[in-house]
């Protein structure tokens, strides 16, 4: 309570009463073991008070001590989800120290501090990434599979509630604490990070705060920090603009206002056509490419991508290529929900999302089969395609996933905001069931991937709980598992339009465009056709944006497969 009292005094400008209150809080923390969790928070509050009093060195020392204590606490958390929650609860420690260092004219140190939090889970798992070989499921995993299958078929809220309780208690027995012994990731030094940027790239890391937010703009030769409007003001406008776009409307005035708030004050933007953004807070839900600049979308002038943090971006850019490129497989495509939809379903726009994991919500996605087959035809072979009833979770996991350079998943997506590790992609059911068909985040993290690109052609894959560390979503789980880049969606996408955009995206990839540039080219085609932002702005690329995927085709012809072969490595399934 004294910590909250100190914050209240601080907001009122009563610094000496605030200092007395926070000292009492810290003293109480030390005497009560259960309050150890509050020590880093209260040290951060005291550091903020000391900074306001002009005691800069003492403030910096306390911020460092607070961050070190956080590292110790985070080293003992049982799962990445808990780690994200703890970082979010204590976000003001990192944000407050970042702001203090910016005011001291120390941008390199400010970058180091915020990078201790941003993308921490991804950096940790990438640093310690190892290929995990398939294994027989444990008794607990088998029990959880059975419960998830029961949940799919359960009717009534009472039955579902009972099963969910059993799911929760079973999840606690998984013992997934393999990350707990990892040492904290070392943030990339700012000068090293700059040297790895391309001359055309502008990297912008946002820190939302009250009463002023900040944008740290980094290029190969410059570093500047710019002041932005307050966190609450920005997030309110982001939510409003996103709602307008999702309603298939255009709001040029609000799009221009957000551009003025977030990008117009960064003069480097006029010189750098490649924009890489590390969002904060609700900016994670904003398609920056759909902001308006003088009557045109940012998409028209810039290639936009996002990254969990500068450190993660640098790790992905430096990930070594396979030792044996000849042993790699170009493409894996999966489309499970290919059965022809009922006539009444075809009258409405079919969306690739479900609101909760109930089997009755898994409607057919009529275009997904055509999408996957067309992409496979346009890219070099040999490829693997899993379609319809053969596109099961079991079949997917049994493939040599570490060998595929491109993985394209045209599936239903599901987001669980309360238990983010349950967010999932939905595969086809199988009889008898070996898996539940729901590939959840906790499972995605364990996949042995080494892909240059994973495309999640499903709804809402970019959504999840938002915190200081980033977003706990399916996208970051694929980054954790070894993907260098992930194309994802910010809202529920429509089946037919998605297929059109994806085919254009891969056509540009096949023409040797870089990944982010190919996505932009496909989006520009839809924009020029008159499609509102709803149909193109919800697709973003996370991770390494540069580099193509394939060399020239042999004799300018793709490898062809016979249509009656089974979906095994190097062959195409029907």
Structure description:
The chain has about 575 residues and is α/β, with parallel strands linked by helices. It folds into three domains: about 1-125, Alpha Horseshoe (Serine Threonine Protein Phosphatase 5, Tetratricopeptide repeat), CATH 1.25.40; about 190-315; about 325-510 and about 550-555. Helix content is about 40%, strand content about 15%. It is built from 21 helices and 18 strands. It has helices at about 1-10, 15-30, 40-50, 55-75, 80-90, 90-105, 105-115, 120-125, 140-155, 155-170, 190-195, 230-245, 250-260, 310-320, 345, 370-380, 395-400, 440-445, 475-480, 495-510, 515-530; strands at about 200-205, 215-220, 225-230, 275-280, 290-295, 295, 305, 330-335, 385, 405-410, 410-415, 425, 440, 455, 465, 470, 485-490, 540-545. The strands form five sheets. The protein has a six-stranded mixed beta sheet with strand order 9-8-10-14-17-18, sandwiched between helices. A five-stranded mixed beta sheet has the order 3-2-1-4-7. A hairpin with a 4-residue loop joins strand 2 (about 215-220) and strand 3 (about 225-230). The chain is globular. Residues about 340-355, about 465-470 and about 550-574 have low confidence and may be disordered.
